[in-house]
Design a protein that fits this description.
The complex is a heterotrimer of chains A (200), B (232) and C (579). With 232 residues, chain B is an alpha/beta fold. Chain B contains 8 helices and 6 strands; from the N terminus they run ααβαβαβαβαββαα. Chain B folds into 2 domains: 139 residues, Rossmann fold; 28 residues, no CATH class. Helices cover 35% and strands 8% of the residues of chain B. Chain C is globular.
Chain lengths: 200, 232, 579
């Protein structure tokens, strides 16, 4: 029992734990109803000075995702006037070349009249069971055509064909993109406007 | 369901349940109690295990779902959360552990690696998905799936448990369950259910060449199957 | 050491030895010396004893199939600091036998076993030359250039089958066995007898002699699925009663073929794979890889990017040390309370990483020449609040909670002792080395990035036991806080990437070794490039893999319950051990 000279070691440890225990109740009593299930309640539990219960109760509350958050990619299309979907992708293949586990397959369309390759994809597949969510495809696309999504609720009972996303499943509107990544979208729109300005 | 249908069911009710009021209510109580106390096995392989630990920690509490009791022993657990890459060296252990779990048992393949080998799929020591050996109930894609995605996956499992009905579950059927044969580590991983296939495809090259020549003529893309490994 | 040696240690090395023993490596982009195989042991002994290179950091091999040779590469350092001594032995591919350096540097044991396993170079005089990452009986040596894996598609990425005519094909369908396997020709599984692990068990020392009481002798397997092994790691322990007589670690249960995949990837495509090596400290691993490739490219990183890099690396160190301490206490039986407190702090730092890089753990944040995204002022404010207010407060609470706790002290003081000489000889690194009293920190010994301008102390312990390792980690958190405060004060504005973002980097031919002081020790990447878009050889010097050499000497004589805590104090992470 050589260390029991410092008699307060274990006692002060228990004091720390007990302090935590009582503090959770005190913080809840002081803050009342607005601490849970409200946006500012969630925010207060993410600050550096948060005390008390730290839990974010998914699914009733969910942590706000930062803009840069990346799950699977999606292809952006601009909505035309009569509801047509103009895919920004030109099938240049950079995303397929830069993908580390090579989970993107692109079949480039050919112009039926001239036989030359035409700049849009006939087929586009991503195998989400191989994707490692690195974001390289979105980072190096020169046309802002593929971006990283925020939707992580993807659990399913089967895999195989269901986990090989084709072009229809991957297309999402530009309005969705602006909603989940406003700052990035604004930056890109500004850059596009700069480029489109006639050179003085 | 009409009351008449209830009293003349066209399936086998186990004798000890013959006097129950209604099987659907029993189903609901049975499933409710099971789904709210699923005990995971403490089984983390790789990076997804860290997210599993984070899901069990204070921010994304698993205890709210009844799952904080992570048992190290397979004999006391209900669900095996395969979190991380499954390698050939480890798969015999995983199959043994699965065999040791008592029914009702579930398997969740968490992450891309457990679902299909993930980004490491091309490796020589990686099993392309744990469902090559054990049956998987829920797949959670992601690399790694965030703890919120894992919780969503667990809720999906809970929904599956809710939909199971006493008359169809495998553990109340007659006869013992089949254990999955444990694979053996040889020159490469040997799956004991595929011995005939292995013997056939590993025949000496001369025999195979004759066969593949005729296969090539018949097939569309003319791509030969992967070459045999060269011994050094 | 003579004065000549101290002044110009390595310039005239070739003249110091008899002629024909060694020559300088004249290949463009390569450094170091090529030693003749017969004189390797003498050379190594002279360098260790006369020149003071007592720390052998890395042993690896590279396959130059075009020339028909293997290069066995050694990097040695002095513990007083300074640049490396690089020496190589070249052997023909069909006569790949090299004398083993385990007699001089015991820390080379696992690394030589790995070279035997993956490359097929035999080491004469090695006490226990068995496969380490693959299993006994595996056919072939995987890292050789002419060995193709079952799902082999093309030599290098990007694969032509993905664009412009990419039709998805399941990799299983291309393989005759419909799976990721391949067998030797004429293999008949029914008549083949499985190899039991006889070599492993026969190498295990059993009973120690001279015991009075008759106690049970047992051989116990701890793991690979065990609540306390921090991942899939197995220890074969031979016990007498409760005392450990010998211990052999078995790894490879998470061997994900990172090095083989990396040879097929381009340089940029390897960056997300490095995240998955040490998955609790991904920013540090990214940093080491970026340093290694930038050394070859010769690119200068802008100031602001350097500050951001160091800030992320130090935040990773804080996060990792909290996590490690929490799990060390888990092993002691605290049963999650301490780890829950530690994980709370970790979550707040992970929030910052998520905001900056997009992912909590797999950050993929560093690029060659800088970082991918700038850090906004709100994030800097968050870091400010964490570092000035929350972490010091919580650290003090942690201190009160743990440092003077009698139970912790009784169980940790004097347990798992590693003396300074042992630690250096066994090539340990990181907190394990410093707790034994050796003040070797790569940030001071061989400064990289902007560490030469920052003020911080190298934290050492005295006794080399578990308690000292715990104290060293807690003190290192305080030093990291000190560093981050200086960075927050001085961070300039400016570009964050040298040049334009490009996915095809031109890396000139040569070899380089980029190392950082990761939270677990010296993490290094040895990269050989031949001017092509993908690396010729890519090797990870994993600190925890080599620290595990010290597990057996530390555990002999201790009780079974202590070996769990000793393993926790080494702080292993399997992604790095097994790569």
């Amino acid at each position: 029992m050589k260390n029991f000279g410092k008699r307060f070691g274990v006692m002060s440890s228990l004091g720390v734990t007990m302090g935590h225990f009582f503090q959770t109740y005190i913080v809840d009593l002081v803050n009342g109803k607005k601490r849970y299930r409200t946006a500012e309640g969630i925010e207060s539990r993410r600050q550096a000075d948060t005390e008390g219960i730290f839990t974010i109760q998914y699914p009733e509350e969910s942590l706000p995702l930062p803009e840069e958050f990346r799950v699977l990619p999606f292809l952006v299309y601009d909505e035309g006037e009569n509801g047509e979907k103009n895919l920004r992708c030109t099938a240049c293949g950079i995303c397929a070349k830069v993908c580390p586990p090579q989970c993107i397959w692109i079949y480039r369309a050919t112009d039926p009249n001239t036989g030359k390759p035409s700049p849009h994809p006939l087929e586009y597949y991503i195998d989400i069971d191989i994707c490692m969510n690195c974001g390289f495809c979105a980072e190096y696309c020169p046309f802002d055509a593929i971006k990283m999504d925020h939707d992580f609720e993807l659990a399913s009972y089967t895999r195989g064909e269901a986990h090989l996303f084709n072009l229809e499943k991957l297309m999402k509107p530009a309005s969705y993109y602006e909603r989940i990544r406003p700052a990035n979208a604004a930056c890109e729109a500004a850059a596009k406007a700069e480029k489109a300005k006639p050179k003085a | 369901m009409s009351p008449e249908g209830l009293s003349k069911p066209d399936f086998d009710i186990p004798p000890e349940m013959q006097n129950q009021v209604a099987l659907t209510t029993l189903d609901r109580i049975y499933n409710w109690s099971r789904k709210n106390s699923v005990w995971p096995m403490m089984f983390g392989l790789a990076c997804c295990a860290i997210e599993m630990i984070a899901a069990a920690a204070s921010r994304y509490d698993l205890a709210r779902f009844g799952m904080e009791v992570m048992r190290p022993s397979p004999r006391q657990s209900d669900v095996m959360l395969v979190s991380g890459t499954v390698t050939k060296k480890m798969i015999p252990q995983i199959v043994r552990l699965y065999n040791q779990m008592p029914e009702p048992k579930y398997v969740i393949a968490m992450g891309a690696c457990a679902s299909s080998g993930g980004p490491f799929k091309e490796g020589y020591n990686v099993v392309a998905g744990v469902d090559k050996f054990i049956p998987v109930d829920v797949y959670i894609p992601g690399c790694p799936p965030t703890p919120q995605a894992l919780l969503h996956g667990l809720m999906t499992l809970q929904k599956k448990i809710e939909s199971q009905s006493l008359k169809e579950v495998s553990w109340y059927k007659k006869g013992p369950g089949e254990a999955i044969p444990v694979p053996v580590l040889g020159p490469d991983l040997i799956d004991l259910r595929k011995i005939a296939l292995i013997r056939e495809k590993s025949r000496p090259v001369a025999d195979l060449k004759a066969e593949t020549a005729s296969a090539v003529e018949a097939s569309q893309d003319g791509e030969l199957p992967a070459k045999e490994e060269q011994n050094d | 050491m003579t004065e000549a040696v101290l002044v110009n240690p390595l310039d005239n090395l070739v003249e110091h030895f008899p002629s024909g023993w060694l020559k300088k490596d004249e290949r463009p982009g390569y450094t170091g010396f090529i030693v003749e195989r017969e004189h390797l042991l003498e050379f190594a002994r002279t360098m260790r004893d006369d020149f003071g290179f007592d720390y052998l950091s890395m042993v690896t091999a590279a396959d130059y199939i075009a020339e028909g040779k293997f290069d066995v590469v050694y990097y040695a350092y002095k513990t007083i600091g300074g640049p490396a001594l690089v020496f190589k032995v070249q052997v023909a591919r069909d006569d790949a036998v090299v004398p083993s350096l385990v007699g001089l540097y015991p820390g080379a044991e696992f690394q030589e076993r790995e070279v035997w396993d993956l490359m097929g170079v035999r080491f004469e005089g090695h006490p226990d030359l068995r496969r380490i990452l693959m299993w006994e009986g595996f056919a072939g040596h995987p890292l050789r250039k002419d060995w193709k894996e079952p799902f082999y598609e093309e030599d290098v990425k990007p694969f032509k089958s993905r664009w412009p005519e990419g039709k998805p094909v399941n990799a299983d369908d291309r393989n005759p066995y419909n799976d990721n396997v391949q067998y030797p020709e004429g293999f008949d599984p029914e008549s083949w007898v499985p190899e039991a692990e006889t070599l492993l068990y026969s190498g295990l020392q059993r009973v120690s002699h001279g015991e009075e009481f008759k106690t049970d002798e047992l051989v116990v397997n701890m793991g690979p699925q065990h609540p306390s092994t921090h991942g899939v790691f197995r220890m074969v322990v031979s016990l007498q009663g409760e005392k450990i007589v010998d211990l052999k670690p078995v790894m490879g249960y998470l061997h994900r073929n990172h090095e083989k995949i990396a040879e097929r990837n381009t340089f940029l495509q390897n960056m997300p794979f490095t995240d998955r090596l040490d998955y609790t400290a991904s920013m540090s691993t990214n940093f080491a890889y970026a340093l290694a490739v930038e050394k070859l490219m010769g690119v200068q990183v802008p100031e602001r990017a350097e500050y951001i890099r160091v800030m992320m690396a130090e935040l990773t160190r804080i996060m990792n040390h909290f996590f490690a301490t929490g799990f060390l206490l888990n092993d002691l039986g605290v049963y999650f309370t301490a780890s829950l407190y530690a994980i709370e702090e970790r979550e707040l730092i992970l929030d910052i990483f998520e905001e900056v890089s997009g992912s909590r753990m797999m950050c993929n944040y560093f690029r060659f020449g800088g970082v991918v995204r700038d850090v906004s002022d709100e994030v800097l404010k968050k870091i400010h609040k964490l570092v000035y207010d929350r972490i010091p407060r919580k650290l003090e609470q942690f201190d009160t909670y743990l440092t003077n706790n009698e139970i912790l002290r009784t169980r940790c003081e004097g347990v798992g002792v590693l003396t300074a000489d042992q630690a250096i000889a066994l090539s340990t690194a990181g907190p394990v080395l410093r707790a034994s009293g050796v003040p070797y920190d790569v940030r001071r010994a061989d400064p990289y990035s902007i560490y030469d301008r920052l003020e911080f102390d190298v934290v050492t312990g005295i006794h080399g036991d578990i308690y000292d390792r715990y104290l060293v980690r807690v003190e290192e958190i305080k030093q990291s806080i000190r560093i981050i405060k200086q960075l927050l004060r001085d961070i300039p504005s400016g570009p964050i990437l040298a040049g334009k973002p490009a996915y095809q980097v031109r890396v000139p031919a040569g070899e380089s070794y980029g190392r950082v002081e990761g939270p677990k020790g010296e993490l290094g990447f040895y990269i050989v490039s031949s001017g092509k878009p993908n690396p010729e050889r890519y090797h990870v010097r994993a600190p925890t893999f080599i620290n595990l050499t010290s597990l057996a000497p530390m555990a002999r004589g201790e009780k079974v319950a202590d070996v769990v805590v000793i393993l926790g104090a080494i702080d292993i992470v399997l992604g790095e051990v097994d790569r």
